[in-house]
Amino acid sequence: MARQPIVQGDPPGDEDKKRDAALRPRLLREVIGQHSVKQRLEILLRAAKKLKEPLSHMLFDGPPGLGKTTFATVLPNELGTSIQMTSGPALTKPADLLPFLTNVTDGSILFIDEIHRMPRVVEEFIYPAMEDFRIDIVLGEGINARTLSMPLKRFTLIGATTRSGMLSGPMRDRFKIHEHLDYYTVDELAQIVTINAKKLTTPITPDAAGEIAGRSRGTPRIANSRLWWARSYSASEHDGTIDLATAQAALKMAEVDLLGLDKQDRRYLETIISVFEGGPTGVEALAATMNLSTDTLSDEIEPYLLREQMIVRTPRGRMATQKAYAHLGKAWKSSDEGPQGVLFS
Ligand code: ADP
Q1: Is 8 within the bounds of a domain?
Q2: Which of 180, 209, 237 is the last residue of a domain?
């Protein structure tokens, strides 16, 4: 039986993430989907155990909520080792990394979320730790300065990023394993919803699980939060069980439409269509008009809209597609009659 990992440091702290932690799979076999990633990790785990070596440093990339942290936390459970968690923005200077690096044990895991947001000085400080398991500490200043090389235990660094393109080349090269996580199928999400409803002791019918799954933007974290909402909705308005009608009513009240888009997604499409006449427009102009950060747009909203071909990216900026016009029930460019959008059941 794998041990519970010892989690130290500053795990990301909002409500969504706390809820995620409660529903997170503990072992690799409990992780749904991402089959080829799982297969490769199984090989690496078996090899690490047989060779008695730490896992190679790994980088997980993909949109938020697809399981990067899940994979990182499952690995120490499988190995019976500990994990420390921090994030790129929390590491403002090399000294911020010291407590983590000095706490690593042989084979343990250091997880850095949003690693693309780690400042360059911290990045450079971590290179020798990754390559040779040592750090160089500069003591004193000017001509009296000297460098002390401190050996570290042989640990594994796991980085997670929503923007692997923003990672510097040298940093990327130091990760021997790169895994990209992609969106989940509706079937896979339905399995996740069913398992998590059980963990929450909430009865759910298969069609209701399918409905929530189909309206969760291919993303387990969103499926979890839709499930959570449907559960509260049912407890308040129904008998605590989630059947199809209850799931639909809950999603309608949350303003999640039939494609799983929420208010913010539709506002994005509305803004391109109404304010920018369908585009092309730059992400900065869109973000300023919507009063959101460009990161929120490019990390959270756009990847799924791109995948669903609601928008396209051109060298001159983002453009809404005919599908987006149809979804919102807007007339496509010059034609007078637009199709009627069907947003809700
Ligand atoms: P990321 O780190 O990519 O933002 P997380 O690993 O935090 O995403 O995933 C969010 C939540 O979604 C997890 O807590 C877990 O409940 C669920 N989840 C993610 N991936 C899977 C998966 N493959 N199987 C089951 N549940 C998953």
Answers
A1: no
A2: 180
Residue at 233 is within a domain:
yes
What is the CA(222)–ligand 1 centre distance, in A?
Answer: 9
257-304 confidence digits (pLDDT tens): 999 999 999 999 999 999 999 999 999 999 999 999 999 999 999 999
Ligand 1, CB within 6 Å, residue ranges: 20, 23-25, 31-34, 64-70, 160, 192, 220-221, 224
Closest ligand 1 atom to residue 31 Cα is 24
- CA 9, chain centre distance (Å): 19
- Give the CA radius of gyration of the chain: 23
243 and 334 inside one domain: no
Residue 76: give the domain boundaries. 34-180
Segment 147-167, tens digit of pLDDT: 889 999 999 999 999 998 889
The amino acid that residue 177 corresponds to is I
> Choosing from 117, 174, 215, 221, which is the catalytic residue?
221
What 3-state DSSP class applies to 331?
A: coil
Question: Is 17 part of any domain?
Answer: no
Q: Which residues contact 150 (CB under 8 A, 6 or more apart)?
A: 134, 135, 136, 137
Residue 285 tokens read as: 């102009």
247: nearest Cα among 191, 208, 202: 208
Q: How far is CA 257 from CA 65, 192, 299, 332, in A?
A: 20, 20, 21, 20
